[in-house]
Design brief:
Blueprint (H helix, E strand, L loop, with lengths): L4 E4 H5 L5 H17 L17 E6 L6 E7 L16 E8 L14 E4 L1 H5 L12 H8 L15 H10 L3 E7 L2 H14 L4 E7 H9 L8 H14 L13 H16 L5 H4 L6 H10 L1
Parallel strand pairs: 1-4, 6-7
Antiparallel strand pairs: 1-5, 2-3, 3-4
Helix pairs in contact: 2-6, 4-5
């Protein structure tokens, strides 16, 4: 990550609006450090502020505060001399109604943030964004851990942080090519120099093990195959509570098949029953 993130001194003055804003700022800065962007961003329509990007930080009862930032090649950043390539300027935290003209200012008003500054759990430069349960998860040394949560609750961030806490070599598997690339960007920024992480898409990993090219099947295509099979066997109307929830049933079946592929993982779910390795391969080939 180097000195990619440069934070203006006024940013910390602007986060004194409560711990939720400070925590959200830490998450947003991690996104910028690893991906060069944030998941939610707005531009500025006013010509005087064109080039600034605004990312919501929340606030009491709504999105009251925004981080104003800009990449190194934007019109606003071009007025700042001495910026390293690919740098990102964090200029200010402002109320959503504040659209007054904002200048980038001089480089000596910005503080470079290291990877440790951005990811530190101890509440150093930025307030730690992690909950107590997330911290316990990524500090746990158990060989098998399971993280559960609602969409948007921070499961992926907790997994990434747990990976970054490991030493030696780590293999990180995920389902989509998009998530694989996002994980690689994150790990390039935050994995320590004495560790290495290989992020791979699951089907690519299986293909490399078996020496074959595993074709890509989208979730929609996979669901379509399931629906066709049910039609063939004429059981579509005999699925009980699953009759109108084939997509949910499809997700459950995928989870069970994946669980049976991992030795010992299904013990707590399945009373120890597990397909033999060859039987599992036969099942996946047939599908």
């Amino acid at each position: 990550m180097g000195d990619r993130i440069r934070m203006h001194l006024e940013v910390m003055d602007g986060v004194r609006h409560g711990p939720s804003v400070e925590k959200r700022l830490a998450i947003v800065v991690q996104q910028l450090a690893s991906h060069g962007r944030t998941t939610t961003v707005k531009g500025c329509s006013d010509p005087k502020n064109r080039g600034w990007r605004r990312t919501p930080l929340g606030g009491q009862g709504g999105m009251h505060y925004y981080l104003w930032w800009t990449p190194q090649d934007s019109p606003q950043a071009k007025s700042v001399s001495g910026l390293p390539r690919h740098a990102i300027l964090l200029r200010a935290v402002r109320h959503h109604d504040d659209h007054s003209e904002l200048k980038a200012g001089d480089l000596d008003k910005y503080c470079p943030l290291s990877a440790r500054d951005v990811a530190d759990d101890s509440g150093g430069t930025l307030r730690s964004p992690w909950t107590d349960r997330q911290q316990a998860f990524h500090r746990d040394n158990s060989p098998v851990r399971v993280v559960r949560g609602y969409p948007g609750s921070g499961k992926t961030m907790a997994l990434w942080r747990a990976v970054e806490s490991r030493t030696g070599r780590t293999l990180y598997l995920t389902w989509s090519s998009t998530l694989t690339e996002e994980a690689r960007s994150r790990f390039r920024a935050f994995v320590p120099a004495d560790a290495s992480v290989e992020a791979m898409q699951f089907r690519v990993f299986i293909g490399s093990l078996r020496g074959i090219d595993v074709p890509h099947v989208t979730l929609k295509q996979s669901l379509g195959k399931l629906e066709n099979a049910f039609e063939w066997w004429k059981i579509s109307s005999h699925l009980g509570p699953w009759n109108d929830n084939l997509d949910a049933m499809h997700g459950e079946m995928r989870a069970v098949l994946l669980g049976r592929a991992v030795p010992g993982f299904m013990d707590c779910i399945d009373s120890g029953r597990r397909l033999a390795d060859q039987a599992y391969l036969d099942t996946t080939q047939a599908g």
